[in-house]
Amino acid sequence: MDLATFFIQCLNALQYGLLLFLVASGLTLIFGIMGVINLAHGSFYMIGAYLAYALAPLVAATFGGGFFTVLAIGLVLAVLLGYVLEWAFFSFLYQREHLQQVLMTYGLILVFEELRSMLVGDDVHGVPVPPLLAGTLPLGDVMTYPVYRLFVSAVCLLLAGAMYLVFTRTRLGMMIRAGSAGPAQREMVQSLGVDIKFLYRVVFAAGVAIAVLAGMVAAPVSSVYPGMGNTVLIICFVVVVIGGIGSIRGALLAALLIGIVDTFGKVLLPQAAGVLVYVLMALILLWKPDGLFRAG
Q1: How far is CA 230 from CA 6, 138, 171, 236, in A?
Q2: What is the pLDDT of residues 252-275, one digit of tens each?
Q3: Is 60 exceeded by the pLDDT of residue 209?
Q4: Do residues 49 and 116 make contact, with C-beta atoms less than 8 angstroms apart?
Q5: How many CB atoms lie within 10 A of CB 110?
Q6: How far is residue 15's CA from residue 207's CA, in Å, rounded to a whole number?
Q7: Phi and psi at residue 172, in whole multiples of 5°?
Q8: Which residues contact 256 (CB under 8 A, 6 or more apart)?
Q9: Helix (H, G, I), strand (E, B) or coil at 227
């Protein structure tokens, strides 16, 4: 492997890892902070990809095109979807057993898959890269790297920084951390006048919006196809477990580690590439059974 190829694989690993973090951060918000095992989280990623596909012609006909307009409209719809789902379904799961959470969220997967099949069919679709980001950057004399992949990495980094600031520097982040500390602390926070139910609704809507955004920005790279959320869901649970349940910084580090192992594994050990991520998880859990970081 020459230096240019190594550099390209490093960029691919970074982009894949950051995209995984974008999806897994929403999962760790819902799973780690709210205590809900949300098997439907991968479906939100799928919904984002199909929104990017379905909204593009509508936005082009109404506003004259614009990928960023599609992203903005998709985010608004995602926040509304998350808010309604939490109010209608997930708000009843906080005091339930994990088995009931699994059954209901698995039911949501089936509902979303059937709705997807009825509305857009079962074909594989492609989402074009926006013209503004369709170029490439030269890496050496022969190789180039797509600008859009760098854009995806930049979006993920900006959102990671925004989440860090929200959780550590704002009153909302303080309330979320206080409300996630345990049942006794939740009662104390409620006694101080904080509406925990509304706070959880906001957190859930944010988690859904992050997953939908990840699906929308990934659509031009990975294409859009049925069941695309299932594979993402499995790997995102691996990210959450490795990083530590409820830890945003843990999810970031775990996603980057998985990106490196998966990308270079496909290049150096293609026969074992599908197993390496789970070997990594096993080794880290043997070393630190609670994950790399505690919640926070």
Answers
A1: 30, 35, 35, 10
A2: 999 999 999 999 999 888 888 889
A3: yes
A4: no
A5: 11
A6: 20
A7: -60, -45
A8: 13, 14, 17, 18, 21
A9: coil
